[in-house]
Specification:
36% of the residues lie in helices and 11% in strands. By secondary structure, it is an alpha/beta fold. Helix 7 (187-202) links the parallel strand 5 (176-179) and strand 6 (209-213). The longest helix has 21 residues, at 121-141. The protein starts with 5 loop residues before the first helix and ends with a helix.
């Protein structure tokens, strides 16, 4: 577990709140990915400290790189990212270099390939150039890291189209792709979707490993991606059992998807103990 995850920090700061013990036991004690973006002013130092702490504890760090220019083009709730391609390249070079020779799992830019439907051809070309840069930097500077380009989810990106996007974005430079990040689709359906993507990638001369975000898919999908009701925590992070490399908690349970659904007043990226308890209870 990360003692500085949002659930862990909230539980420590609110020990007298009746929700704290449940959040601590059910969420904060689980390995949860750490998201890195433009809010870190010194990305190299921040990544080095996080990876160093995990390595010293005998744990495998899981990092999410989330700072592409024009991030979250479709929904806009998590908009932001670096201001220019040059800034992104400097940021990512420091990010990959800080991981160095140490083992790690890296999720590369959630939403990046699903968002293509909301972008012009010129914008897609720039994004692909940046993703190829990012994956090449990880291959060169973090050779022990297993990195995964985000590939949407069962409901966002047909297998043939997503395989083509992954190919164009440089998936051959890294271990593979990630599915269901911050979403709710069942693991079995997600594995089937991954196998279909890999069948399409094989037509391009390669296949890829994959990981699945199981942080909130315990009750499956209900037609909405934004703080939907009656969702539930999924299986704990663990090595894959049905073809996937890992099942991971990439999304932090309790972090809002945006001011919507069961949390209309909670901005994207904000921790809500109420959302966390709803996921524990499936309510």
């Amino acid at each position: 577990m990360d003692p500085n995850s949002e659930p862990a920090k909230w539980a420590r700061a609110n020990k007298n709140d009746p929700r704290a013990a449940r959040i601590s036991a059910e969420i904060a004690t689980r390995p949860i990915a750490k998201w890195f973006g433009e809010w870190f002013t010194d990305i190299g130092t921040s990544v080095d400290k996080y990876v160093d702490a995990a390595t010293a504890a005998g744990k495998l760090p899981v990092l999410v790189a989330y700072t592409l220019p024009g991030r979250d083009a479709c929904s806009g709730f998590s908009g932001g990212g670096q201001k220019t391609p040059a800034e992104y390249k400097r940021w990512f070079s420091a990010f990959a270099g800080a991981i160095g020779e140490r083992p790690a799992v890296v999720i590369v830019e959630p939403d990046a390939l699903g968002d293509a439907e909301c972008m012009s051809a010129a914008q897609i070309a720039v994004r692909n150039e940046l993703l190829n840069f990012a994956t090449s930097e990880l291959r060169a500077k973090a050779p022990q890291a297993w990195a995964y380009l985000d590939a949407g989810n069962v409901g966002w990106g047909e297998p043939a189209e997503m395989a083509a996007r992954l190919h164009d974005a440089g998936v051959r430079n890294v271990r593979g792709f990630a599915l269901n990040v911050s979403n709710f689709h069942p693991t079995a359906k997600t594995v089937e979707h991954a196998e279909k993507i890999n069948a399409q990638l094989k037509n391009k001369g390669h296949t890829a490993g994959f990981v699945i975000d199981t942080s909130r898919n315990g009750n499956g999908h209900a037609g909405s991606w934004c703080n939907p009701p009656k969702r539930k925590l999924g299986s704990a992070p663990q090595p894959g059992t049905t073809g996937e490399d890992y099942r991971l908690w990439i999304k932090t349970p309790g972090i809002s998807d945006g001011p919507c659904g069961t949390a209309p007043g909670v901005p994207s990226g904000t921790y809500s103990p109420e959302l966390a308890v709803k996921l524990i209870d499936g309510s």
